[in-house]
Write a structure and sequence with these properties.
Layout lengths: L6 H14 L13 H7 L27 H12 L13 H13 L9 H9 L20 H14 L11 H13 L10 H9 L39 E3 L8 E2 L9 E17 L4 E7 L3 E5 L15 E11 L5 E11 L10 E10 L2 E15 L18 E5 H16 L5 E2 L6 H10 L25 E3 L7 H9 L5 E4 L2 E7 L1
Parallel strand pairs: 2-7, 9-11
Antiparallel strand pairs: 1-3, 3-4, 3-5, 3-6, 6-7, 8-9, 9-10, 12-14, 13-14
Helix pairs in contact: 5-6
């Protein structure tokens, strides 16, 4: 039976060959510790018996595997703070133990390196200033150190990068833009100085820019004064609009607005017209009514005036009423903007990137954020689960629009000495559909008593958290007393479910 050669035997052979060739090889170049490799960010060329291979191109790796795939695995383990021993391309006992330890941090077991473990090795963030990260990250770099840089660029510069641990053209472009905005050397390489500014989140240039002299003011001709318009006399019909709705400005794409308002008159109202008009003059939605009464509740126009279906742009909302025997009068003229929801995550939370959410049945893109102070057991927060949201790592997930309120509320409860844990937070549309299949009442024909219709759950919109607590518990009592301050309310039928208003 052939005997496997030991590492010491291999070193002797290597030294012998080097000597025959007349090349002086220092013994120190033939060994490499995990700390040395962490500093350099790459495997030793002497010990790497094979060139590192992207794990995406490798089969599932197990103990006993050898080659370039294992070299890459060992490099990534070092970056994540786990010691696989010498980077030699041999999946031995130390590498096996390091893989097991890494997977344990993700709530996974075993030492097999399959698709989920590979993805986590590349995307699990490592603080870029860590000693395990290379001093300079640049185009072609991969791993958790790059994932951290991408996350910071998204948070502090709104870069909108996919946090995938790959330093490609988009990351290079974002790094250059960040460097330019901070008056750093613009080379796309994330070295010590750029890292420092990313971590500190500086908002001004580190060196003063050359002052630009103010332009000489041009002489201007005074414009003729326009006389103030003559006040319009009050309507003889006493036509008024009260309790009118307030339109958020800006209004985000996919947001529903309830049409509120009571129109009253001293005489019968023969016609009411409400419309949403685009900047181009095109009428997007129009609702009309013929009350033939002295009072009209505009709530009846809700379904026709579809604010939630408006795309990005400038609009004006009009309310026009005609009293009997009189000319039509404009009771409301309100301008507002509709914007895409590409808000940044609130301070104290972590950017998870853009995902699809559902609001009132409408699919839209929005930024999701992790609440680092709230542990969550929902499927979307558990690494390795089929619904897992990359980067959430057992933390609560909410939409960027609501991240400030949820973070401030949960932190205030914790500051009051209350433990805050969550079950389900953000929920994917597919997860909601799967839940619907499992519920007898969720079939599209009967009421959705236990499971909301897919596309309508506040969880799908990143606007709700199911807290891990008992009815009447310390946390429950605190929320009932204080949640309203943060625009968050309890769902009347589920004491554990709290959603943004």
């Amino acid at each position: 039976m052939a005997t496997k050669r030991t590492d010491s035997y291999s070193r002797v052979v290597a030294i012998g060959i080097a000597a025959v060739m007349g090349i002086l090889v220092s013994a120190t170049t033939l060994t490499a510790s995990a700390s040395e490799l962490a500093t350099s960010g790459r495997a030793s060329p002497v010990l790497a018996v094979a060139t590192a291979v992207d794990l995406d191109n490798c089969p599932t790796l197990n103990k006993g595997a050898q080659g370039g795939c294992v070299v890459e695995l060992q490099r990534l383990l070092i970056q994540q703070g786990h010691d696989p021993g010498t980077v030699d391309g041999d999946f031995g006992p130390k590498t096996d133990a390091a893989v097991t330890a890494f997977k344990k941090t993700l709530g996974m077991t075993g030492s097999s390196v399959g698709p989920q473990t590979k993805a986590a090795l590349y995307t699990q963030k490592v603080t870029a200033t860590s000693s395990n990260c290379p001093s300079v990250l640049s185009s072609g770099s991969r791993g958790g150190c790059v994932a951290y840089v991408q996350s910071r660029l998204n948070t502090v510069a709104g870069a909108g990068l996919a946090v995938d641990g790959r330093f490609g053209p988009a990351t290079d472009k974002a790094a250059r833009a960040f460097q330019k905005a901070r008056c750093l050397s613009v080379d796309g390489k994330v070295g010590p100085d750029t890292k420092k500014h990313l971590v500190a989140n500086t908002t001004t240039c580190s060196t003063p820019r050359e002052a630009t002299p103010a332009p000489t003011p041009k002489p201007t001709t005074p414009k003729p004064t326009t006389p103030a318009p003559t006040p319009k006399p009050p309507s003889s019909s006493g036509l008024t609009l009260t309790k009118a709705m307030s339109i958020p400005n800006p209004l985000f794409v996919g947001t529903s607005v309830s049409v509120k308002g009571i129109i009253t008159s001293s005489v019968q109202i023969t016609r009411v017209e409400a419309k949403i008009v685009a900047a181009s003059g095109k009428v997007m939605y129009r609702a009309t009514a013929s009350p033939k009464a002295k009072t009209y509740d505009m709530k009846a126009m809700d379904k026709t005036l579809a604010f939630s279906k408006l795309s990005k742009g400038d609009y004006t909302f009009w309310v026009i009423a005609t009293p009997s025997g009189k000319a039509a009068e404009t009771l409301r003229q309100a301008s507002f903007k509709v914007e895409d929801e590409m808000l940044a995550c609130a301070k104290g939370t972590e950017d998870l990137n853009l995902f699809y959410v559902y609001v009132s049945g409408a699919k839209k893109k929005a930024r999701l954020c992790a609440l680092p102070n709230v542990r969550a057991s929902g499927d979307e927060s558990i690494p390795g689960h089929k619904y897992y949201v990359a980067g959430s790592n057992k933390r609560a997930i909410v939409r960027a629009r609501y991240s400030k309120d949820f973070y401030n509320m949960t932190k205030a409860a914790q500051d009051a000495g209350i433990t805050v844990k969550a079950n389900s937070t953000y929920r994917t549309h597919q997860h909601q559909k799967d839940l619907c299949k499992e519920d007898a009442g969720c079939d599209g024909r009967t009421s959705y008593d236990d499971v909301a219709e897919p596309g309508t759950s506040r969880h799908e919109g990143g606007a709700a958290i199911d807290f891990n607590m008992g009815n009447g518990s310390k946390l429950h009592k605190w929320l009932k007393k204080n949640a309203g301050t943060y625009h968050i309310k309890e769902y009347s039928r589920e004491y554990w479910h709290w959603e943004h208003k």
